[in-house]
Write a structure and sequence with these properties.
Length: about 100
């Protein structure tokens, strides 16, 4: 079962990007986001916790240029966090 089914992106100057998710991440030692040009797969440890399609070549370029990305956990009904609440590794998957 997915922990969340959508996310948003905060874009900064240059190639800066932060992912905002509408949930708290489950406890894990590491988080990974496997990306393709139109799909995201979030993992907590080795467990897949969310998968979704997304649109935007700019988003893909920024994520693909990173080895890690900041995550802001923003569940419904809670105040927007004042800072990044977690970090995930980026795993780029290119079509063969």
């Amino acid at each position: 079962m997915a922990v969340f089914d959508k996310c948003n992106f905060l874009l900064g100057q240059g190639s800066a990007i932060v992912i905002v998710i509408p949930a708290h991440l489950p406890e894990a030692e590491t988080y990974t986001i496997a990306i393709t040009s139109d799909h995201l797969n979030f993992k907590a440890g080795h467990e897949s916790i969310a998968e979704m399609a997304y649109q935007g070549e700019e988003i893909y370029k920024r994520l693909a240029d990173c080895t890690q990305v900041g995550i802001m956990e923003y569940p419904p009904g809670e105040d927007f966090p004042p800072c990044i609440t977690n970090v995930a590794y980026i795993e780029v998957r290119r079509a063969l």
